[in-house]
Design goal:
With 419 residues, the protein is α+β, with helices and mostly antiparallel strands. Helix content is 34%, strand content 20%.
Amino acid sequence: MKILVLNSGSSSVKYKLIDTDGEKVLAEGGVEKIGLADGFLKYKRADGSKDIVELGLTDHKGAIEAVLRQLTDKTEGCIKSYSEIDAVGHRVVHGGEKFAKSVIIDDAVKEMIRQCYDIAPLHNPANMTGIEAMEALLPGVPQVGVFDTAFHQTMPAKSFMYALPYKYYEEDGVRRYGFHGTSHRYVSQRVAEILGVDIHSVKIITCHVGNGGSITAVDGGRSVDTSMGLTPTEGLMMGTRVGDIDPGVLTYLMTKHNLSATDVQRIINKEGGIAGVTEISSDMREIEAAVAAGNERARLGLEMYEQRITKYKFPPVVLLIGVVIAYFTSAAVSRAIMSSSSVGTTTTFTLLPGVEMTASTPRALLASASISTPMKASGAQTSARSPVWFSPTPIAGVTEISSDMREIEAAVAAGNERA
């Protein structure tokens, strides 16, 4: 069975043609700069060599047509006709609460994807463009939607709810959804296979680290918490995304500089992160080169990046008290973090037995989930399992009962689910 996998972005389409019978990638590549005069298709041959086809100005349908032409090209192609493609798989970024697994795409599914446009305005419309283009070019071929958010639908309410008035969840669907779900699901399953353990009996922290990044706590093969939220902006510091930030900073800047919501969206998605702090690049290779050259702003950016990954690993370790496997999707980042002195201040990492940390090897790390130093809050020393309440205000908004913990505890005892 031959499956064409598409990842349609706002200005690009990435593809792979996979033969599931032989578990072999037959072709891969992508179209870049869709909508611009210098659009092109890049592809990789079976021997690993690469080449480029100039396309000029094209839209998404034209881009996918170019992909199909390449696949059936008499010299460079790997199939004789479109009829050899048995199914098409699409990456869809946001499925809201509507999808907890991959689904066959039909009119009802397309409508539900459109209903998520408001919370994924940069991604879902582009994903839909790819779906509709493929429908026009390969009518009748089954299409499947694979959702970034689906894996995280197993998170409990205590993990996905924001401490906002509850009505914003009920009326507007405002909650944490998480992203990179396909990556977190795959790497957690693969690590369990590599280690020869039952995924349903282990606790894993998966670290998807690239230009965008997120960390997920996986317990028994199920996502129980993750760093990204309603949008991919929450969580880690990323290439151009700010990650976690005090909302008051945004309202302050909006007032002081007369910024619109669109302005703020641009800043937190496109102008922040490593690129914003260093004013050099979002490419870690360029940042590391600048650090080596003595650039202090680059050093600051790298230290902030590492510190936030370290900080975000700590809560999942507490959440998953027990043996935890930490897996980084980036070997370079795992090496950088392993060498960072900041790691030792939170959790202790040791390499898996037989695994040597070299430039070409291993991303799988065994983490000790023991907390060597008790946490402190408000001057009181507590154990990792002790409840720590930092602010009563969010409790009142979420429960719509009270900010008094005695009243909340009484409501819990009486069976109040919101409490």
